[in-house]
Amino acid sequence: MPLFLPSPAHGVFYLGPLPIRAYALSIICGIIVAIFLARRRWRSWGGNVDQLENLLIISVLVGIVGARVYWVVIEWHRYFGAGHSEPWYHIFYIWEGGLGIWGGIAFGFITGGLLCRRYHINFWRLADCVAPAFLLAQAIGRMGNWWNQELYGYPSTLPWALEIDQAHRLPGYAQFATYHPTFLYEMIWDLMGVGLLLFVERRCKFGRGKLFALYIVTYATGRFLVELLRIDPVSVYGGLRVNSWATLLGMLVGLCLLIWRIRFRPGANLIQPAAVAAPAGTASEESPSGCQSRGNDGVGPVPTDEGQLDRLDDDADQSLVDDDRSASTKD
Predict the structure, then answer these.
(1) Kindly report the CA angle at 15 between 10 and 20, in degrees rounded to 5?
(2) Please, which residues have CB within 8 angstroms of residue 84's CB and are 6 or more apart in sequence?
(3) pLDDT tens for residues 169-209?
(4) How many other C-beta atoms can be found within 10 angstroms of the C-beta atom of residue 86?
(5) What's the chain's Rg over C-alpha atoms?
(6) Confidence of residue 240 (pLDDT cuts 50, 70, 90)
(7) Angle CA(305)–CA(309)–CA(311) in degrees, nearest 5?
(8) 159, 4 contact by CB (below 8 A)
(9) How many CB atoms lie within 10 A of CB 72?
(10) Distance CA 11, CA 145 (A)
(11) What pLDDT is recorded for position 82?
(12) CA pair distance 21, 77, nearest whole angstrom
């Protein structure tokens, strides 16, 4: 007898009269784990953890709003179209599912960029720091689709196919009991992506925005493949689901950003390890200037604040420009 993945009987638990929704818990767990990982990375980079927490909390909240806005836009007909299937006020029923990750990424990182200006933090350095954490959060959040029995793929009889209750089967598929667990495919892909980002960061000195660009490309690639298996009804243009087009656009943007920053922003992020950061106004044991004697590449002093990090980054950029001009002159 074939063994299939079971689906939960229900996704809502009650604490007295208070409903506890597993979908929301999955997202909250993902956010908590992501903030924990980002805090640990940012502290090891010598960043201000309090600023990071404020920035992440605001960005995540705005990102959730953006994810819902994206969903409502692509599912406009469901709430406002002729013969719409749901009343308009259901656009606020976020616990029923319906978050578009590209809206979350766009709104969240735009908000993060604005807050970086306020806190005088280098945006690309921060983006590299949180990229693995965000991908990890996306992996954990996918469990919410399992609890809601939603966003599954075509019917399947594979050993790992997902059982879907009759009440949650889409029109035209009522006779099929098991389907591709696309939530699981994307979850596994995201977890492998986290490992890839951390490996590349360490081995290839991917920093200065390149790790964030690789995150976009990695996620978009997996998401595009998963979209080819999904059967939930969405608008289709040119034979592709609207989410597939959005994913291709994200992949293209990420790839262009990655190539550009590899060419013009080589090297790793400048890091001041928190464990050796000297107190303000004092000199460290290694250097009378108050900086550790080596940078992350083993050359030069490590800056002790975000302003110094940005200035060194700018100096490196200007050095590359000068080198290019010098090479052009020689030619």
Answers:
(1) 45
(2) 77, 78
(3) 999 999 999 999 999 999 999 999 999 999 999 888 888 89
(4) 13
(5) 23
(6) very high
(7) 115
(8) yes
(9) 19
(10) 10
(11) 72
(12) 26
Q: Work out the pLDDT band at 282, boundaries 50, 70, 90.
A: very low
* 129 neighbors 309 (Cβ within 8 angstroms): no
Angle between helix axes 123-141 and 49-74 (nearest 10 degrees) is 60
Domain ranges of the chain: 21-264, 279-330
What percent of the chain has pLDDT above 90? 53
In the chain, % helix, strand, coil (3-state, to 5) comes to 60, 5, 35
Query: Would you state the torsion angle of the CA atoms of residues 94, 95, 98, 103, taken in this order, to the nearest 10 degrees?
Result: 50
Alpha carbon of 120 to those of 112, 114, 123, 125, 308: distances in Å? 12, 10, 9, 12, 11
pTM as predicted: 0.80
Residue type, 28: I
Cα–Cα distance, 282 to 2 (Å, whole number): 68
Share of the chain above pLDDT 70, in %: 80
- Where do we find the tokens 């013009």? 264
Distance of CA 112 to the CA centre of its chain: 13
Beta carbons of 105 and 135 less than 8 angstroms apart? no
Q: What mean pLDDT comes out for the span 110-122?
A: 92
Residue 160 is classified by DSSP as T
| Dist CA 305 CA 279 (whole Å) | 11
